[in-house]
Write a structure and sequence with these properties.
two-stranded parallel ribbon, 105 residues, single chain, globular
Length: 105
Amino acid sequence: MERNEEKVITSPLVIFEIVFTLETYYQVLRVEIKSLVQPILDLRGLKVDLKDVFESALGLYLKKNISFADAFNACFMKRQGIKEIYSYDEDFDRMGGISRIAPGF
């Protein structure tokens, strides 16, 4: 039985691009970005890899006032059971459960 429901797939980079464009080009506030992107992720017919990580990252992005990329990476690390990151980015110091190791040369 046909229910007129579309099944589509998109790249995770599309979600990043939506957040980036809303934030930088349109200067949309983070709380609005979350309210605009979450319904896209909630679409039943949309398949996007790591959808659960994106949903968690939106919350962390809003709560910790960090870049969306940092929020995504922190949530991805948690999903993978990774607790350490080599990074110069001090934003990771403000996230519970992650130890940042500054790379040395």
